[in-house]
Specification:
The complex is a heterodimer of chains A (about 110) and B (about 110).
Chain A (H helix, E strand, L loop, with lengths): L3 E4 L2 E4 L5 E7 L5 E7 L5 E7 L6 E2 L6 E3 L9 E3 L8 E8 L9 E2 L3 E5 L1
Parallel strand pairs in A: 2-11
Antiparallel strand pairs in A: 1-3, 3-8, 4-5, 4-9, 5-6, 7-8, 9-10, 9-11
Chain B lengths: L8 E5 L4 E6 L8 E7 L6 E6 L4 E2 L4 E4 L5 E6 L8 E8 L13 E6 L1
Parallel strand pairs in B: 1-9
Antiparallel strand pairs in B: 2-7, 3-4, 3-8, 5-6, 6-7, 8-9
The chains are: A mainly beta (about 110), B mainly beta (about 110).
Chain lengths: ~110, ~110
């Protein structure tokens, strides 16, 4: 089945530790995105990538880092510099940035920092 | 980006049509209207999008006013599984494919 996978579904970390969230897609999509969602709120864009080896900051990139070494993968690292990392993280992909193609979302990772 | 305004919550009886409004009075001519929904603790799901003509697919219909300043998403026969937060988004043309999610409308379908 084609789709987007995120792992793990739930993640717990101690304060001060970096943590990397996985996002993989087998849809052959060029563009990938990371969003953060806090309780009762909409989604906010962290980073996005339109092609391999290229990525751009979104609205709330501080304290996060990404890489795009392969078309299928767009991991997000939540660093210790992120002041309030506990949130629901969603990864998405789309066929091609700049064209009116819809985004497909993964199931999300709920990160809790203790 | 053109901002959107949606009511924070709505109720609908099961089997009836759910009409979800969205105001986007500052929309520009090349911006599309997208609708997504998010069922609790899941990733958002694309529903439909349009530019100026009304659109229909297997999930819903999208009615856009002639001046394009508002639109309505119609779920013709709402079921309990349609209970979700519905987001109306106006996409900035030429700025990649970024979507800006506001607060959305929480639709509660009741038996």
């Amino acid at each position: 089945d084609g789709g987007i996978t995120q792992s793990p579904k739930y993640l717990f970390r101690k304060e001060g530790q970096n943590v990397t969230l996985s996002c993989e897609q087998n849809l052959n999509h060029d563009a990938m995105y990371w969003y953060r969602q806090d309780p009762g709120q909409g989604l906010r864009l962290i980073y996005y990538s339109q092609i391999v080896n290229d990525f751009q900051k979104g609205d709330i990139a501080e304290g996060y880092s990404v890489s795009r070494e392969k078309k299928e993968s767009f991991p997000l690292t939540v660093t210790s510099a992120q002041k309030n990392p506990t949130a629901f993280y969603l990864c998405a992909s789309s066929m091609r940035a700049g064209v009116r193609h819809e985004q497909f979302f993964g199931p999300g990772t709920r990160l809790t920092v203790l | 980006d053109a901002k959107t305004t949606q009511p924070p919550s709505m109720d609908c009886a099961e089997g009836r049509a759910a009409n979800l409004p969205c105001n986007h009075s500052t929309i520009s001519g090349n911006e599309y209207v997208y609708w997504y929904r998010q069922i609790h603790s899941q990733g958002p799901q694309y529903i439909i999008h349009g530019l100026k003509n009304n659109e229909t697919n297997e999930m819903a219909s999208l009615i856009i006013t002639e001046d394009r300043k508002s639109s309505t998403l119609i779920l013709p026969h709402a079921t309990l599984r349609d209970t979700a937060v519905y987001y109306c988004i106006v996409r900035v043309a030429g700025a990649g494919n970024m979507l800006t999610f506001g607060g959305g409308t929480r639709l509660m379908v009741k038996p």
